[in-house]
Amino acid sequence: MSKLTEIFGINVFGDEAMAKRLPADVYKSLKDAISDGKAIDRHIADTVAEAMKEWAIEHGATHFTHWFQPMTGITAEKHDSFIEPDGNGNIILEFSGKNLIKGEPDASSFPSGGLRATFEARGYTAWDPSSYAFIKDKTLCIPTAFCSYNGEALDKKTPLLRSMEAINREALRIAKMLCEEDVSKINVSVGSEQEYFLVDKSVASSRADIVFCGRTLMGAKPPKGQEMNDHYFGVIKPRVAAFMTELDDELWKLGVYAKTEHNEVAPAQHELAPIFTTANIATDHNQLTMELMKKVADKHGLICLLHEKPFAGVNGSGKHNNWSISTNTGINFFKPGKNPEENKLFLLSTAAFIKAIDEHQDLIRYSTASAGNDHRLGGHEAPPAIISIYLGGALTSIFEDIENGEHHSFGGKVKMSVGTEVIPYIKKDTSDRNRTSPIAFTGNKFEFRMPGSSDSIAGINTVINTIMADVFREFADRLEKAEDKDKEIIAIIKETMKAHKRILFNGDGYSEEWKEEAAKRGLLNISSTPEAIPYFADEKNIALFERHGVLNRNEIVSRRDIAYEVYCKTIHIEALTLIEMLKRDVMPAISKYEGKLYKTISYKADNSSKKFETKTAATLADYNDRIFDLCDKLEEAVDKTGKINSLEKMAKAYHDDVLALMNEIRELCDKSQEITKREYWPYPAYGDMLFHV
Ligand code: ADP
Ligand code: MG
């Protein structure tokens, strides 16, 4: 492994580079600023900038950029070179503290949902010193937050950082009461497993749907899909292995802890899991991972599809967001330890989690909603759209015992314990865990399986941090006042179980019975993005985010509108792509094959059978007529929908009218493909794409 240790983080201005290149006092102030989230003064910024520049130039960089995550969901950068004229016709290489701290990209074309009036098109980027700068494509990238002139967040990172502050504030109160060590900071840890598909570029790039939408809008099922489960953890093919090796190398150079790569359930589907790290760094790293997956795939003649459902009928792709919090002294709030029933920090935190998720099912659902993920959530082999928590039998019964008054005491304060194993029956539960649950306890963390593969994980983590901060705050208020804290904890857990145990479900989340049961329990079942979006701006949620300083009313309303816009645009582009495919490729192809069949019929002797030709031609003619009519209808629907002047109604119409028509058309196309001679069909088939890498 010497190679790994040699290359790991070589393109990152990380702790080692800083320690080596910064004067001791500057290094210390920077580290303090990072750990306490304090502002950095100008003198320090100038010194850091100088050291960063030297380091970057030595590593081949010529440009710098403020790297940020606007609401488009992908990262943005505007490159400036280090070159400045020296006034004598020569150049010097310049990079000041000012350049480091603040940037002013021409931001008028990033979505702002009305937050940035057009006369004030500027947005500002501000250095996030807690995420290390790195070099990519000869450019020094400085992770930044992006906000408006008034300081309102225009990006995904700012609210995430604010939510980390909120949970730090509230969880710290709990830790101070329940932990033995002197705790001064709470860390949010996130590990996000990334699923993706790889297809051959020379095969797939002839499909407009793959190129423009990242998913197939039609395609008959191949005779073999994923039913044999032979791809899952199967042998990795050489071409994919070469891709994975290079991807790992590139990620390691950027300090991303890529750890395991394996095949997933669907053919051509794979997964990359990193080692968990601080939430905002994990978010930055996940963005980089997605970007590099696409780039490296391209170099290998492959296309990396990050869409949630590139192919109908086989599994979609998600991003498993593993989440936990721990103290700066190393105590994980969600580590059950040897005796979970004695571990009050664990029990109280898990109760907080149960309450937070049950009270805010809408926000969890909203933060994972997208046009792409709609094809996945509630579909087969994907987590259901209904939110529930899998705790496992052993832990559930501990909570039930407390609820039923069969449990009255705890051990002392929680200490950091090195290498304490969980009790065997919990281990069994967690390793043998339920894959059908949208949120599962997995040993010392909660795994959220709903996020879509193409989504930024900033949104879901902002929500988890905020709702947990809210419940911790309520619990801390009670505990700080309580005379007998142990008694109060029991009371809190009892109340929580009574009010919120409906969110616990250890059974099969894909079953029909669960849908009925969940409805009886009064759990939300939100099936589409347009249905999920309005919940975000509920008064309850505005109050929640404002209470913790994570998002204000304006920011929420603008984000809601951006969510509507993104949804509408996505379906709009898909519809236009489908129309083009139908008119220019599909209908002419069917017609051509029909013509061929008629020609054969006319050649054939009068008394020979023409059953195959006549029946097939007639069926195809019928399908093509129907496709033609539906294509017209689709065009009308797109036209009409685009003119609706309420975003909410427009999104609903894109879903109810446009998408519904697209599905109808798809079915006819797939049926036509099944009876059209292979060489006449204008696109590579599913089988060609899924099994030919
Ligand atoms: P599994 O293979 O059972 O899904 P792993 O232990 O491999 O579980 O972890 C999956 C992901 O969860 C990895 O990205 C890992 O780094 C992350 N993870 C592990 N422990 C934690 C934790 N305490 N907090 C957040 N993420 C974690
Ligand atoms: Mg997992």
Task: Write a short abstract of this structure.
By secondary structure, this protein is α+β, with helices and mostly antiparallel strands.
Any overview of this molecule?
- With about 700 residues, this protein is an alpha+beta fold.
- It has 3 domains: about 5-155, Ubiquitin-like (UB roll), CATH 3.10.20; about 165-550, 2-Layer Sandwich (Creatine Kinase, Chain A, domain 2); about 565-690, Four Helix Bundle (Hemerythrin (Met), subunit A) (Up-down Bundle), CATH 1.20.120.
- Helix content is about 50%, strand content about 15%.
- It contains 23 helices and 18 strands.
- Strands 10, 11, 12, 13, 14, 15, 16, 17 and 18 form a 9-stranded mixed beta sheet that branches.
- Helix 11 (about 345-360) runs parallel beside helix 16.
- Bound molecules: adenosine-5'-diphosphate and magnesium ion.
- Magnesium ion binds near residues 193, 320 and 447.
Features of the shown structure:
single chain, 693 residues, alpha+beta, Ubiquitin-like (UB roll), Creatine Kinase, Chain A, domain 2, Four Helix Bundle (Hemerythrin (Met), subunit A), 3 domains, nine-stranded mixed sheet, 49% helix, 13% strand, globular, binds adenosine-5'-diphosphate, binds magnesium ion
Count of separate structural domains: 3
CATH topology type of the largest domain: Creatine Kinase, Chain A, domain 2
Q: pLDDT average, as an integer? A: 91
- Radius of gyration, in Å, reads 28 Å
**Major β-sheet annotation:** 9 strands, mixed
How far apart are the termini?
A: 29 Å
Number of strands: 18
